[in-house]
Amino acid sequence: MTGDLHHLTIAEGVRLIGQGKLSPVKWTERLLERIEAIDPLLDSFITVTGGRARSQARRADEEIRQGRCRGPLHGVPFALKDVIDTAGVRTTAASKVSAGRVPGRDAAVLRRLEAAGAILLGKLTTHEFAQGGPSFDLPWPPARNPWDRRRFTGSTSSGAGAAVAAGLTPAALGTDQGGSVRHPAAHCGLVGLKPTNGLVSRMGAIPNSFSFDCLGPMTWTVEDCAIVLQAIAGHDPDDPGSADVTIPDYRAALRGDVKGMKVGLVRHFHDSDLDTDAEVKSGVERAADVLGDLGAEVRDVRLPPLADFCACQWTITCAELNAVHEENLRHRLADFGENTRYRLVPGAMIGAVDYVQAQRLRRDLIRRINAVFEDVDVMLTATVPVLAPLIEEMKLSSIFSSRGGMNMAFSVGGGPAVAICCGFSEAGLPLSAQIAGRPFDDAAVLKLAHAYEQATPWRDRRPPVETHEQVEGAKVSHG
Q: Cα 207 vs. chain centroid, distance in angstroms?
């Protein structure tokens, strides 16, 4: 890790704050300066809340100096995907349809994070209503991948992936209904967690799919991911899908070895179910070898074909998307971007019989996943089948099919799944593996991911981001 403030992890920053070597004000100012310098190249932010951040940083600094520390997020900057409500600050969903929308109430996750003393830097770029993309016909341009600005950041928590990787924020919250946290985490070399459905409140997040919506953290390390999850997990009576369960100490659960943990390698997902890049396959296989060297028992397992999970997930999601946006689709269809229309309109064609049958299929798929979990503690596979593609090569057909990856299986299953960096391609692009677990066993997923991370050197490598001044005159194409 470098000594630069913008590359501090949450754990490192909090330790320095506790030692009196860093103030939340200094950390926040450094990140706001970096956003101003770097983000014109990446377009990861839609709104920067500089005034709010500075005020919160001063308050955190004063409270900590007075000995009133609220916990491991006190004084830590973060940012939110722009589908998560912020009272008094616009929440646009990157759409002309809601460009001027200013919520009157904070989302539940924001209330939890600010109660823990965290500092909001701003709202992050997303694909329109967390669908479609990358798009060039929206009010804001798509986010760019800091490993190579010509490339896709991956799915709809796109600004979150770019901002964390580029050192603009140590943490971000995204949403995930079919891989939208894990996909950008994979292409940007991050840790991205889809928690167990119901573990984190969805209240105040613009809905996408009632059946699959989740909110999850994106960070540089697994430890940081555990710290953020600790703050946002918990029952919320305002969310009808929220689960009332005991919340363990996720950070403490990272300790100890993983000897004897049973890992099911879902090799057929990346070997035969999808056309997967050779470098991606090799990265996952090497990750399995590392886990074996750490004492885990790795064995091949089989789940239903990915095509079954994708058909189930897409039928349900398309119908629910149409229900969410039906009124605006009737009256403001032209205000949606082309990619979004490509996804939303087919939902009108899905009948009640199709929807019910897809929900029945989901129950059967969950049963079959749970049967495999009777013999293993976690499962391992690739996160995405390809390296980050060039943005200009993302056509409507590829945009639609690119989501039909390994992520959907664990979205359908409802349990936790975390994306972790497992190396780099010859071209220097991140590779990613995915670890999935039983519902509400998020701690086991994070423990194995942390053990792998500690045994490998990948967290020492950061993207070669240039400042706006260093590339003065360079023009990044927006289509």
A: 16
pLDDT in tens, 147-196: 999 999 988 999 999 999 999 999 999 999 999 999 999 999 999 999 99
The reported pTM is: 0.95
343: closest CA among 131, 139, 130, 136? 131
Burial group, residue 362, by CB count within 10 angstroms (0-12, 13-18, 19+): buried
Residue labelled with tokens 């796109």: 158
Among 440, 451, 433, CA closest to 379? 433
In this predicted structure, what is the pLDDT of residue 395? Answer: 66
Could you tell me if 6 and 109 are in contact, meaning their C-beta atoms sit under 8 angstroms apart? Answer: no
The tokens for 468 are 């706006």
What's the rounded Cα separation, in Å, for the pair 442 and 250?
Answer: 8
3-state secondary structure 257-303: CCCCCEEEECHHHHHHHCCCCHHHHHHHHHHHHHHHHCCCEEEECCC
Q: Scanning the structure block, which residue is given the tokens 């926040």?
A: 28
Q: How far is CA 228 from the centre of its chain?
A: 12
Residue type, 319: A
Average pLDDT of every residue of the chain: 93
Cα–Cα dist 312/147, whole Å: 33
Task: Tell how strand 417-424 and strand 430-437 pair up.
Answer: antiparallel
**Residue in the structure block whose two tokens are 């990346």:** 270
63-97: per-residue pLDDT in tens? 999 999 999 999 999 999 999 999 999 999 999 99
- What kind and span of H or E run contains 446? helix 442-454
**pLDDT at residue 2, rounded to an integer:** 37
Q: What is the DSSP string of 349-415?
A: G--HHHHHHHHHHHHHHHHHHHHHHTT-SEEEEES-SSPPPBGGG--HHHHHHHTSSTHHHHHHH-S
- What superfamily would CATH give domain 5-460? Amidase signature (AS) domain (3.90.1300.10)
pLDDT value at position 471?
Answer: 52
Query: Quick check: 237 and 265 in contact, CB under 8 A?
Result: no
Pairwise CA distance, residues 97 & 397, whole Å: 24
Mean pLDDT of 409-430: 97
Look up residue 78 and give its DSSP letter: E
Euclidean distance between CA atoms 417 and 420, whole angstroms: 10
Q: In angstroms, rounded to a whole number, what is the distance separating the alpha carbons of residues 147 and 139?
A: 25
> Within 10 Å of residue 308's Cβ, how many Cβ atoms?
19
Query: What is the phi/psi pair of residue 336, to 5°?
Result: -85, 150
Where are the chain's structural domains?
Answer: 5-460
